[in-house]
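Budget justification note: compute hours in this period were largely spent on complex prediction jobs such as the one shown. Inputs:
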Amino acid sequence: MNHWIIAPVILPALLAPFIVLVMRHDLSLQRVFSTAGTAVLAAISLVLLYTAANNPPEVYYLGNWPAPFGIVLVLDRLSAMMIALTAVLALLVQLYAIGTSWDARGNHFHALFQFQLMGLCGAFLTGDAFNLFVFFEVLLIASYGLMIHGGGAKRLKAGVQYVAYNLVGSTLFLFALATIYSVTGTLNMADLAVKVAELPAGDAALLRVGAVLLLMVFAVKGALVPLQFWLPATYSFAPGPVAALFAVMTKVGAYAVIRIFTLIFPPETAATGTLFADILLPAAIVTLIVGAIGVLGATGMARLVAFAAIGSMGTLFIAVSQFTPQAITAGLYYLLHSTFATAALFLIVDLLQDRRGNDDLRIALPPTGQHGLITVLFFGGAIAMAGMPPLSGFLGKLLVMDATRGANMAIIWTAILATSLITIIGFSRAGSQVFWKAYATTTTMPKPEGKAEPLAFAVVFALLAGLVLLTVTAGPVTSWLTDTSTELFDKTAYINAVFTPVKE
Amino acid sequence: MLRKLFPHPYLTLLLVVTWMLLVNHLKLGSLVFALILGIIIPIITAPYWPDRPALRNPIAIIGYVLIVLYDIVKSNFIVAGIVLFKPSSQLQSAWVTVPLDLRSPEAITVLAGTITMTPGTLTADMSGDGRALLVHCLHAPDPEEVRDEIKTRYEARLMRIFE
Amino acid sequence: MELLVASAVGLMTACGVYLILRKRTFPVIVGLAMLSYAVNVFIFASGRLAIGLPAIITKHPEGYTDPLTQALVLTAIVISFGMTALIVMMALGAFLETGDDYIGMEEREQPAGPKEGAE
Amino acid sequence: MSLALIAALPFLGALLPGLLIRAGRNACATVTGLVTAFALLGVLLHAPAVMRGEVVTARLEWLPALGLNANFFLDGLGLLFAGLILGIGLLIILYARFYLSTKDPMGQFYTYLLLFQGAMVGIVLSDNILLLLIFWELTSLSSFLLIGFWKHLPEGRQGARMALTVTGAGGLAMIAGMLILGNIVGSYDLTVILQNKELIQGSDWYLPALVLILIGAFTKSAQFPFHFWLPHAMAAPTPVSAYLHSATMVKAGLFLMARMWPVLAGTPEWFYIVATTGLITMIMAAKIAFFKDDLKALLAFSTVSHLGLITMLLGFGTAEAATVAVFHIINHATFKAALFMSAGIVDHEAHTRDIKRLGGLRHLMPITFTIVCVAALSMAGIPPLNGFLSKEMMLEETVHTVWLGNHWVMPALATLGAMFSVAYSFRLIAHTFLGPVRTDYPSKPHDPGFGMWAAPAILAVLVVAIGVMPMTMVGDLVRTTASAVIGGEAEVYISHWHGFVPALWLSVFAVGSGFVLLGLHRPFEAMWLSTPRPEAKAIFDAILEPFAMAAQAITDRLHDGSLARYLAVATLAILAVGYYAFESGVHSSGTRTLTIIEPVAAVGWLLLIGATASLFNYHRNRLLALVLVGVIGLMVSVGFVYLSAPDLALTQISVEVATVMLLLLALNFLPKDSPVESTAGRRGRDGMIAAAAGIGIGALIYALMMRDFAFPTIADYHLANSKPGGGGTNVVNVILVDFRGYDTFGEITVLGIAGLVIFALVEGLLRGGAANDRLLAWVPDQKRAGDRHPLMLVVATRMILPIALMVGVYIFLRGHNEPGGGFIAGLVVAIATIMQYMASGFGWAAARQRIDYHALIGWGVTIAGLCGIGSWFAARPFMTSSFGYFKLPFIEKFELATAAIFDLGVFLTVVGAVMLALASISRIAIRAGETVNIEPYDIQPDEEQTEGAR
Amino acid sequence: MIPYALTFAFGCFGLSLLFNLYRIFVAPGVVDRVLALDTMVINIIALLVLYGINTHSAVYFEAGLLFAMTGFVSTVAYCKFILRGDIIE
Amino acid sequence: MEQIAEITISVLLVAAGIFGLVGSFGLIKLPDTMTRLHAPTKASTLGVGGVLLASMLYFWIMRGQLSWHEFLITMFILLTAPITANFIAKAHMHRFGDKNTMPDTGTPRDWATFEDESKEMEPVMTRVEPKPKVTASDHQF
Ligand code: NA
Ligand code: NA
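Corresponding output:
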């Protein structure tokens, strides 16, 4: 058995308490160890990515109990990809937090950060439905801590809302799991796939209820309308680097939908059929619209980016709602893109906010330090986020549109293109207001000194470079993702892997 | 040294007994374990119990306990009678001040507890200097009598045990 | 018995939902606690009801209730405890920072008139 | 040079000017020019082959999954446009070097310019329509930067946004159109698409694709009704206007129509849409140009007009017309670029572009005058200049065109357009340069240096040269290009004299009436000014501003920060989908019989229901609400006991107490009541939502309980293997620490994190700021009794605490086999400790025993984790347990299990987390002015009264 | 004989609980409700023990012990809140 | 023997039931909070105590297994009941009590519950005033 599979969970899980125990009062030490930990995590995740790419799904039997009785971890291409994405993003965000000293604005930033990684990796790796809940909670509570890092009235209020809303989501998760367990008698996802496929007709309705409740849970995480309300305030009041890290949090919802609803409830399931697609697609389209309108209507830069993030989830869920390998490939590509794009923009807005004092679009303020540089970065980020060429957002949208040819083509394409336009208008209005109008308020150019923060800028550049890389290597990446989604739809491989007897 | 090891020897004894009652069997292993816990736990909690109360006459406790048990049973019957059969209008409840001669906090606590457990009386409060108890009587046509009984029947005995 | 459990779960859910729709942090937190009670019983009951059959292995069992749902409830209880503790403190923090305990961010609806205030 | 490299060169080169600006403006301009020249050279090297009729290609796989590849090809059409873009680009770079002032960031300018140039080159070289789309949108983006170059000018910013909005929107429509086109053909490669005329024109999707693609082309080429953005883009520096709006961006639309001509043209749909649009645009824009006083606006509308002309020609769908279109593209590029640059010179020198403030410049700026004269006369269609040639050919084509069965509409209206064209061209010359020299120019104008007039001069020379000897100059080019456009062999014959054909008469008429029109400018202008007419910006704003306002209103209304509404919506949505899922599925009714209800159970139920109902009723009294929560928690625990779940009962009751404690601690600072704030209607609505949720959940659990499901549960395995495999008889505990120990690991991590977050939160609150100030000024809001630490409790606690700790140990140890375990034990110990705190105060207790709660949490999680890792050393997966039975001398057999170590981790974390939370809240209280006692109890009966204060 | 006595005792304590519930519904103030809750805990412990006799099972006594402990602590906490506001000052 | 045990157990159960019921009945019958406080703290203790005793006897004599847990519970309740009563009484006095209707303490000091904040500041209790601005590192728990 490959013990490396559990390393992405155990490493941060032990590093975090180690930080608390040993270096609670020494920020420099925390920085060194935490960053090193994240770097090692990134390295491990790349190894796992390589392993997963060249092997069938690999299973880790916790406690050495056979499936479905114990908890299993399953490493396949999708989970490996999500972990690698998380680790790489986390490393960059962490460097940003260090570079801007965000981590010094409150206690326990690094410990919480590691716990956050533990939760994320655990959620991506698990092959057990209830364990997914547990790690959702780990990642959520760590995110609560990170969200209110640095404190302040507005942030705390938004934090209370965020927690309250997600606690309702967690409760719903439990209702759903209990229902599904009651009907099927199991919690192991592979076992669920087997049982659900053989479910007697009379049990269908109850299972359907459990399954849609589960879908709603993931919809909360994925900010699908009408369950998106928690997101704008949370993301816009969270510290910049935390909001950037949260870019991957909404993707957890998308990941869970992809995982559960291709493995356990694929469209060919007799009991559930196209129920989820029927719910997801309209909701995703409305999400896209709400996000775009929010971008146009936002009065603050961070809020604008938050709405753009909602919109991107709409696009992603449109792809997911097709439940075809091609569409999932498109969705996964878009997922990679929108994670980096959202993160980059939140960091850019943080740089802006930090220098400008606020991010209010209605106020014209003179240029501040590094104004030109931030302008360039914002322009790049906005292009990516709005899905303009040449960056990966455009390719992602093309892929999604190409994959949604079919019955609902007209409405999907119209929605995607129309919202793209609204988003472009929104970004251009905001950008010209904040970055260009600044020159109209003063005749003197900004002083070049200000805060240097080269590390922070390097991180933003790296994120944008990541988008460029994703664009340039779109061919190999999509080919890899095609294999990934093929693997997803070949559920027998997954099931066989899980039910291989434990080797002593 | 011994004081450090056994800050409250009676407590150690109590804990050993409690553990044996908890595990519900009398085996050597359990007793050894009970002793270990009986020593460790008082050491842990010793900071919260800085002084060791004087117990002048531990044997007298048994007699006191028996009297109180008898009184508890008796009080229950009396209270039950009052609750069931006495109309509220005829109820003569009263507040009584019981001046204290006891000075040990432990002793006062035992007295106050005893009052609460016994016939129709209840310790409601203490004076700010700890020299008097405020007792509420459910039905006491003669409050003086209640106070005297408390002083003679319980406080006097406790004086003998603690001081 | 099933009817009793189902109705109790339903009522606790309803009470929880009603309270989380209030405007102050405190009732919302109480509502969340109620919801967590409700869901705990829900999970537990989803493993079916059994009287006098705890899942403690004995030599001559008459049968056992489903231990797994119980384990799930235990996990859920612990997690919701941690969450509740956190949100309580956050609500307190928000109150101390802002001076009010509205859970809404901007929402400042006028208090209801005297007629409606009489509940 | 590979086509891919040519397309990439401007992008790669775009970095250089930004970097080299520190080396000076000349270096900056030189390197920009070199990059462009190099790319132009690359194109020209291919020219001979292309002129021979070959097609140069370069293919690069990019995104095969989508059919998006970096495929380039160069044919006649591409060659013409690439030549125009790079050639005129070179001139613009030269011109801009002298035009831009020292205050303008020139490096930025050239960077943007190169980006734009690259995008344009990319469009004309693309052999893949998706790739073309990418470059297409890139032109929108880079032109946005160029138009908004003068960021301090509001017109610049607005013009840039308007251009981006309109052309961006068109681009998006075109994306849809192109995808449909690719969908029809099955390939996104242009060369493939261009060979499938029948397939495309026979498809049901032809019209949608056509319309969508044309929207893209029309917006870019500023065709009616999308023409309005172009004049506003004139806020850009003149080099930008000259480049974008004469030679390049606006011609991208024309390029696209020409490019797709072989497969889209020739149908009635194409004819009526394209030709009509072109015609209307031509006339309307020419008319507007005639009345514009701003030189650049005049030129802008004249550009729109000429683009309409070309569009119309392409719309005719005949090879001849297409050939004329190609020829006019060349001609227009030459004279219009020259005119724009000249206008820039005038602006630069006279500091105004207002025709009304100019006049008489002929004497002051003879060189500029000459250039303008040549170019404008060409624009007016005066022989022998090149504009004359193509205009007459155009008129000739209109004569042969039937529009809705009507023979004269086309030529008549085209002549009308030509008339206006003559009029504004002459006006440009006459009102700017002729007449007397004025004394009131904002700045005294004179001809600029050679650097500035060189570029337009070169173009003027070209205008004359092409006009005089068209076949020699551009004959081959037009043929090659036209062949590429029509996808066959084009015949080119350009001549000044065709005999007395109708076109000649029309042309003569146009020139004559144009003269007359100019003479009547003043009365017409008065009429024009008095006629109300839509102002483009006003309309655009009138559309966009309300839209933006509405977006803001919707967003703010939707996300107004009201959690209550968010949650109401969420609840309703969840209920709706849940109901839908159930209703649309098959449900067989229950198979199980009801368990009997014992009277005691009924009483318990009544209590639970009663307490819950009371909570509904009394929730505003917060303390009372907590008491009721206590009752409900108690009853739930009792229910668990009754229903065979002792572990749950123990956990539930201890968690409930700990929760209530925390809530009480927080309530000390919070308001003690929740005022009535919702209207009765809203409360009713909330009640309905709550009732629906309650009924839904209740019905769901009832249905679940009443049905036997097909599969046995995995719990059977747990029951069977708990003792043999896990070494414990309490199956619930064995599941927790063994079968699903990993869950528990996650769960204690949650608790530990909660503790850390609470600590960090309080630390932040107390660091300063509003919360800290509020605490320092804190006044308790309720009357406080004396006797903080009642003696009786303190004394009793001295006994209860040790016993409770012992009970904790007991519950911990027996957990594996009987109800209990690390979590409950942790809570018992925590509650016992809270009791101590209640007795003598937290501060007092903490001062006597310093416990590092962080360390408890840290060690707890670490121990649990290390316990799991330990199994690696036995070559087993994480958290594999082992257990054994041991016997020591004199002591009975006992069991040791690694699960107990794990449980210890759980225990420590629980204690640590609860204590850290209490410690944090107590710090808040101390900041609020609370004091720490030095004695365990307030009342000191053993103290001599005379002693008094200590 | 014992079963009848048990049933009687069940009845008494069940009825007691209903009285407690009444006091929780109808009370002049929160103090009475705390008292009712405290009494309820006592009655429930009694019921638990009766239940143990009824099912011949000793598994539920820990629950009784813990109910007694938590009941005490929470009653003190409620009262301490009324008295002082801060329960662990 | 068994017969006697059965009778004893049954009597204990019945008595316990009656006392328990009386305790809770008193809770609704008695006229004010202070008198109501008497009923449960006394009657209930005997009620629950009787049940516990019966249970011990039952398991010991009828099932042959002596369980001391009941004894522990009884002890615990007896230990805590007075404290509970004391606290409820104090809470009631604080909320609804009238200082003037209470009997005199007979000592210089008032009843502890009524000693308000200002009195608390008097010499009996020495209070450690916190430093006005506590820095974060002072309170690392
Ligand atoms: Na294990
Ligand atoms: Na109690």
